Amino acid sequence: xxxxxxxxxxxxxxxxxxxxxxxxxxxxxxxxxxxxxxxxxxxxxxxxxxxxxxxxxxxxxxxxxxxxxxxxxxxxxxxxxxxxxxxxxxxxxxxxxxxxxxxxxxxxxxxxxxxxxxxxxxxxxxxxxxxxxxxxxxxxxxxxxxxxxxxxxxxxxxxxxxxxxxxxxxxxxxxxxxxxxxxxxxxxxxxxxxxxxxxxxxxxxxxxxxxxxxxxxxxxxxxxxxxxxxxxxxxxxxxxxxxxxxxxxxxxxxxxxxxxxxxxxxxxxxxxxxxxxxxxxxxxxxxxxxxxxxxxxxxxxxxxxxxxxxxxxxxxxxxxxxxxxxxxxxxxxxxxxxxxxxxxxxxxxxxxxxxxxxxxxxxxxxxxxxxxxxxx
Length: 376
Description:
The protein is mainly beta. It is 5% helix and 49% strand. A four-stranded antiparallel beta sheet has the order 2-1-34-33, with no helix packed on it. A four-stranded antiparallel beta sheet has the order 3-4-5-6, with no helix packed on it. Strands 7-8-9-10 form a four-stranded antiparallel beta sheet, with no helix packed on it.
């Protein structure tokens, strides 16, 4: 099977470290994934037909419509728009971190004066005071929060868990914390050089320590299906603490409900299903390391990028784009945001254009609409 070997010069140790830490580091450093500070520009909202239904001038960023609220970051203020794009709240006191959407009626915000994070409700009321150095979105009623000490490098982190009212469900005492298993009531934590799975659905909480020599990898690849762990090699562990896939990989690059993209000792970018079984992709398909949606993977051909369907083992979208930005759904079905040399736009699951490739930035569809940044 022929694949890109662009990262073959990297040592196995670096590859393992990269997948374990890169996305975690991005999420921990304030501003690294921040939409705030982008250049001002004109934005529009398009519907499922690609028709412009609303425009906004001189804004930094526009988030997706979620829970009937759209968040707009302006140069000096933030605005909440309703599903009719009418302003329902505006304030110069707050800015948004990289998370620019409503989740379970809560929105993380940064207080401009204190640079601390708290949560607003969908009407702009403060429901959790800004006292944290970082915060995530609410998932199944819980969100991570953290205190950070930057007096020394590397900085020290203290993670905890709060509920929708701001009550601390887990104390601020963990070096790392993952909510990937929260749909099953499980939280993965690191403390005193040990890893634990905490079942917060039980009272008192049930705590399971990982075996000696086994360490969890805190990465965005962790999901409700299991989390990445290291023990000689890299494998996948279920939230019951049992191995789903034995530690036979050198690295895990991406995951989806279908499975994972992994490295073996002598082979890069191999597709395996959720049980670790190899999926034989045709030799002429040069897959990338990006899994999309339930069963898609990006691939390269003649310097361009397309989409391959792993369920049918067929090309879904021919390779004619610079990149595939996202996959979402509108009223007509699946929609891919794609980028060309001229700009970005949207195509359906067969590659048919929904819009012209004329935008500067293209966000994903949510509740029938997508926000796009217009070219200057």
